Amino acid sequence: MFREAEREWVPGDQARETRVKSVWYRLIQELHEAAHAGDRQSEEEGIDEALRQFKEKLDTGFASDVRITELAEQTGFSPVYMRRTFDARYGRSPKEYLDQLRYEHAVRRLRFTSDAITDVAASCGYADVYQFSKAFKKRNGLSPSEYRRSSDSTLFN
After folding, report:
1. What is the 3-state secondary structure (H, E, C) of 88-108?
2. CA dihedral of 108, 113, 115, 117, whole degrees rounded to 10
3. Tens of pLDDT along 119-143?
4. Start and end of every HTH araC/xylS-type domain (predicted)?
5. Count of CB atoms within 10 A of residue 126's CB?
6. Are 147 and 136 within 8 A, CB to CB?
7. Who wins on pLDDT, 83 or 20?
8. Among 2.40.50.140, 3.60.150.10, 1.10.10.60, 2.130.10.10, what is the CATH number of 97-155?
9. Which end of the chain has fewer beta carbons closer than 10 Å to its terminal beta carbon, N or C?
């Protein structure tokens, strides 16, 4: 387009100057569109990296007092946007993902250790045994103690 404008331009020739202006306007429009597409691509790469870091923090920090809103704010994206994007990418909300991580960890601890239920609850990120027992029973249909007894009998059969 630069070469086309250079070839067309003749000082003082109104018709040619009009054609050159047309070429410049097209060039500016294409540059604008290319820059905007680059911004979108950069934003998509940014959200991909933010989601990866967000998920990694959930994966490694599930045993602590994780605040999903605070983690989302650390990414630089709004918590609502992170929740929606996480859900779209992983098929569940960050809260559901965190609950699943904690549940899976609790199942392993109950099944393969003899740790006290209180210790299992704490190692899975629950504030107290009551909260842990309630969440576990809601998901599994058995209390943690009942689950442990039932899994003990299946380990030795």
Report:
1. HHHCCCHHHHHHHHHHHHHHH
2. 40
3. 999 999 998 999 999 999 999 999 9
4. 52-150
5. 21
6. yes
7. 83
8. 1.10.10.60
9. C
For the residues of 46-61, what is the DSSP string, one character each?
HHHHHHHHHHHHHHHH
Euclidean distance between CA atoms 94 and 106, whole angstroms: 18
Assessment of whether the complete model's pTM goes beyond 0.85: no
Quick one: DSSP state of residue 12? T
| CB contact set of 86 (below 8 Å; sequence gap of 6+) | 51, 54, 55, 93, 94, 97
Cα 136 to Cα 121: distance, rounded to the nearest angstrom: 10
Structure tokens at 46: 């940014």
> Using an 8 Å Cβ cutoff, are 131 and 142 in contact?
no
Domain locations in the chain as residue ranges: 2-91, 97-155
Query: Quick one: tokens of 108?
Result: 């392993």
